[in-house]
Amino acid sequence: MNVRKFTASTSRGAWSLVREALGPDAVILSNRAVDDGVEILALAGEDMASLSEPVVEKAALSESTFAALAPQHKLGHTPTLAITSNVTSQTDTTEINSSELNDVMNEIRSMRGMLEMQLTEIAWNGQHKREPVKSTVLREMLAAGFSASLARYLIERLPAGSSNQSGMEWIKSILTRNLATIGDENEILEKGGVYALVGPTGVGKTTTTAKLAARCVMRHGPGKLALITTDGYRIGGYEQLRIYGKILGVMVHSVKDEADLRIALDELKGKHTVLIDTVGVSQRDQMVADQIAMLSGAGSQVKRLLCLNATSTGETLNEVVRSYMGNGLAGCILTKMDEAATIGSALDIVIRQKLNLYYVANGQRVPEDLHVANQQYLVERAFKLKRETAPFQFSDAEIPLVMANTARAMNDKTLREVILG
Fold it and tell me: Where in the chain is the domain with CATH 3.40.50.300?
């Protein structure tokens, strides 16, 4: 395989040499300004095509694209290969060995990433001037905590001719339509079944379990409910739930492994509802997989409800959902709503991951501070809670930079599943 070097006094001249030697499908590896003009490293298209995926990613540029990106006589500096050779003419061939191939491909990927970011930034700079409504709506979504990629996906599909008000109403309607909730408590209180509350440490699983237990007792009485805890690690974990159970008149059973859980569920199969309070496990801990396996192998249809901390960042919540997803979640519960400065990131993850939102919890009181999720209320609240402090708001000059980083994120399949109409 040959990487060839071409030099000329201008970028157009160098590109002409590339076309004459390698054809129109040549792949540009790097370009830079040198003392006597412009230097280009290029690879023949057929050489690039012969390489197997995923090591190689084709990045051929047309003449018009190259000319637009590389002004005459002076090219911007981009990452270049550390290859030395004696240049005796305007065209010279430099051999590279296979060990350098990955470096070449990394250079291509880096160049493509920077190019995508720069083009996106330029596009958004222009759009801000042409379509100020989109910029206004975009700023509102970012301030509410929604991800830049979801915001961009929706903004690009904003109906033409929208005003600031109609644009925001459209955005809210799309978010509301894509936020799945149970609608009423009959999903859990009337149907009953076995529910396990899972999630990371400190997310409020035990308190939320107590709130659900109180609602079940008020609906069916203490005789129809059973509580189970697997939290044998945290000091006082069992005692906390036992105290709640004593107040409600419900027995609390403690289990430590899958065999214990299977026996307990078999003994409690006559109960209308069984709530399982699990031990909190970091999403990066191997114990998450063990916990999922224990609940899945318990012999009964255990429905897992994931507790998500509304104060966490979108990146953290996304990681939590992916870790706890297992073979599928029945739904989720948003906790610590009263502590969250913004809730857009939490709603963003619920929408992306197609989770069924059961409840939202906004305090420590049992059972008052637990509410059935309402789509319209949550979306409206997200925009009312948008950041008020200057350090967390984006200026007009910063928005194009934020959008530039979404170029690759737009390929996320979860965005394509957002229902627009």
Answer: 186-373
